[in-house]
Amino acid sequence: MASDVRDVLSAAVDAVGGTERPGQIAMAEAVQQAFDTEQHLLVQAGTGTGKSLGYLVPSLLHDQRVVIATATLNLQHQLVERDIPALKEAAREVLDDVPHHAVVKGRGNYACLHRVREGAPDDQGTLVEVPEGTLGAEVVALREWAEQQADGGHVGDRDAAPSHNERAWRQVSVTARECLGAQRCPYALECFAERAREDAQQAHIVVTNHAMLAIDAIDGVPMLPEFGTVVIDEAHELAARVTQAATQELDPAGIERAARRARPHLTEPEAADDLSDAADALADTLTHVSPGRIEEPPQPLRAALDLVRDTARACFSAFGKERGGEEPDPARQQARSAVDELRQVAERMARGSDTDVLWLGELRTGQQLRIAPIDVSGALRDKLFGEKTVVLTSATLALGGSFDPVARSLGLWEDAQWRGLDVGSPFDYAKQGMLYVARHLPAPGRDGLEEDQLGEITALVKAAGGRTLGLFSSRRGAERAAEYVRMALPDIEVLCQGDAQLPELARRFAEEPSTCLFGTLSLWQGVDLPGDTCTLVIIDRIPFPRPDDPLMSARQRLVEKRGGNGFMQVAAHHAALLLAQGAGRLIRRADDRGVVAMLDPRIVTARYGGFLAASMPPLWRTTDRATVMAALGRLDAAAVERAAS
Q: In what residue span(s) does the Helicase ATP-binding domain sit (predicted)?
């Protein structure tokens, strides 16, 4: 079988115009071995390895269905639109039969023909044909597109839809709870979501996302066809995505909205009034609760949650039963689902389980309660790793030089059947880039960027001639640095997150020479900026979680309760992943050159600094400012010369 893997891999690499790399071959053979032996595999494949083909080829050749789960829509789109079609076309040269592939997304990613044709309910549950203004024009365009998709037998996927905003898309789509169901919907035979799931039943490779995998494997809600083998790409995101999928919110405004929608459909309308009164009671109670984690809900809050739960249950019962033969009512279905979800969330919050974290956050519209699992490793261990063969891959899985931290966070303990493999990177990081630590600067304070850090940022940007990606721990820090550099260096354009939509800012940064882009966490990963666009990456401080982060602080306490080091296993782990991802923005191609500038001296002065530094790409390291400034100057001169030629 190894020769088959190599033959198909070679053909696939040729098909995408790439170059076979030793790390890619080693990865493909290791994945194939993991499938055959049913042993879990963690494989770190650096940028440029070609890891997608490294797991797609053995997945194509495996004798059972393989599910591939990604964290981002960008990678999912790349797999479905580019990598898998190219692989299948190449495989036809060496295989007699090339299996089918399909993609499965959440129901809300597909247009709903019932909503398109019948209209969407407003906050009072009344069907609205078309909203007015610009929103209305977008909805009309989306409806016409959905009908064209249905007529042409296409997929009705949001990614292929005309330009629109979130509000417009909600007018033509439904959530899983709002869906009438295939048995009751008059348009079930044409349904895009149902057809996607039917297509997946016939597929050998099924591409989905982490959240769908979690709902299927952990929650036990059937979202995917039967499978025994799964590849999880961007696996460093898995625990966070599983946590996100299991997080729920409750706020007075949402309760009031659910009551308004329910009222027209109730046999006892006063049940909706009781639910509205419960919303008011919760709002009043929350004014006496401090923002942040709620370790033990005070009695008034527990009573308010009990009231929401009980009135939601009574409201749900007051919907009564639909009469046989009646046309399904989407507004009723949506209202009923919203009320039942309120009941479930309030019940979970009132129960106060030791396995959950409850906290109070602030929204622009008021206060909101949130609840999330404190630890997902046990669920992953029992429901995913205990029942499936799993391959996890990412460019950042070995933290501090070891796979153990990530494995432990995902539920793979020492006794589990797994192994780790680092296939390296085709890049020579030590020759292509520098990691500069500004040791002369003071450690960052709680008040954000000080004059010393701002001056250092300005000097670095000036030496680089712009071409800087600034990664900051807060929006306020990014904005302050952008304002400072604009004033000090008026000839260099500085874009800042929030000035426009992120894709637009990234496009301008890539296309306009000497431009800088400053931003926060969404820029730390998933942004691909090769070449002279980015020769300097500035990181303002070690990205530890905030001390008042309810979920992270609860996880640290849990680790300490179990006898571990909460700071290292949670806070340092979190920071190491982000540093690895952030520093990874610099070298994206074999001819990239540049500097990662770390303004936080603790990475070389603190005891935990070695662990963090070992998690980053192995760039040549220095604390000498003059050396770095000279290197940036040479890179700038070379870029100007290339642009002129």
A: 10-304
How does pLDDT run across 381-402, given as a tens digit for each residue? 999 998 999 999 999 999 998 9
CB atoms within 10 A of CB 561: 9
Q: Nearest Cα to 622, choosing from 469, 460, 439?
A: 439
Please, what are the domains in the chain?
2-100+203-243+376-422 (3.40.50.300), 107-194 (no CATH), 248-371 (1.20.1270), 429-644 (3.40.50.300)
Contact status, residue 494 vs residue 543, Cβ threshold 8 Å: no
- 301 and 351 Cβ atoms separated by less than 8 Å: no
| pLDDT > 70: percent of the chain | 96
Higher pLDDT, 296 or 626: 626
Show the tokens assigned to 409: 């966070």
Res 127: pLDDT:
53
In angstroms, the Cα distances linking 256 to 147, 273, 275, 643 are 34, 9, 7, 59
Average pLDDT, the chain: 90
Structure tokens at 224: 């995917």
Alpha carbon separation from 474 to 166, 437, 546, 584 (Å, rounded):
25, 20, 10, 20
Q: How much is the pTM? A: 0.87
Backbone phi, psi, residue 532, to 5°: -70, -10
If we measure between CA atoms, which residue out of 308, 315, 327 comes closest to residue 265?
315
